[in-house]
Structures are given as C-alpha cells and as structure tokens.
Amino acid sequence: MPVFTSLYHGDYEPVDEAEVDGMPIIGTFLVDRIVSFNVFSCPRTSLENHSAKLTSEPHHHTCGIFIKASYINHSCYSNARRSFIGDIQIVRATRNIPAGSEIVFW
C-alpha cells in the first residue's frame, strides 16, 4: 500500500492514523485523489486506438493505475510514447534521450 499512497495526490492531507482496532485505515478520499491524478485511460490495444473511426457513438476505454508510469510527467515536447496490450503499458522512446534526462509523455 505505501507504493500506491506515495503517488501524487495534490494538496490533500491524509489522516495520521495507520490503524484502528488493529485494522489498517484506507482513506477513500486519499484513494480518490490518487486515482484522479494518476489514472491512465487506455484502449484494449493501441491498434484499436489508432484505427478508431469517428462516430457519434461513445468510445469507452478501460483505465488503470500504472505505478512506475505515474512518475512520468507530461510535456508538449515529449520524448516517449505509451502503448497498450491488454493490461500492459509499454513506454518507448520517440527520439534519443540523453542520460540523466527526464522521460516525458505527450
């Protein structure tokens, strides 16, 4: 749980108590904040996403939390692209990335 709760959650301050009556406290407001900032919307496959036709019907995606990918920031000048196969997110460089540079998505 600490891996999940350490993800970015804005300015929300979680409760200090870790347990009540020997049971762990899981703050639903904290979970909501973490999910709202870190969830990835994704198609079942990236091929689906790239070949989607424009229709008036809603196109629903699945979504999930990918812990390591949640640490990658956004940039309009990205150097990486993500794609999906089922519940696996693949991150690939779109250009040479010098050592020590930040990996950023579009």
TrEMBL record:
UniProt-recorded name of the protein: SET domain-containing protein
Domain SET residue range list: 58-106
Superkingdom classification of source: Eukaryota
Upper taxonomic lineage: Eukaryota, Fungi, Dikarya, Ascomycota, Pezizomycotina
One matching Pfam family: SET
Annotated InterPro entries: Gramillin-biosynth_MTr (IPR053209), SET_dom (IPR001214), SET_dom_sf (IPR046341)
Organism in which the protein naturally occurs: Cladonia borealis
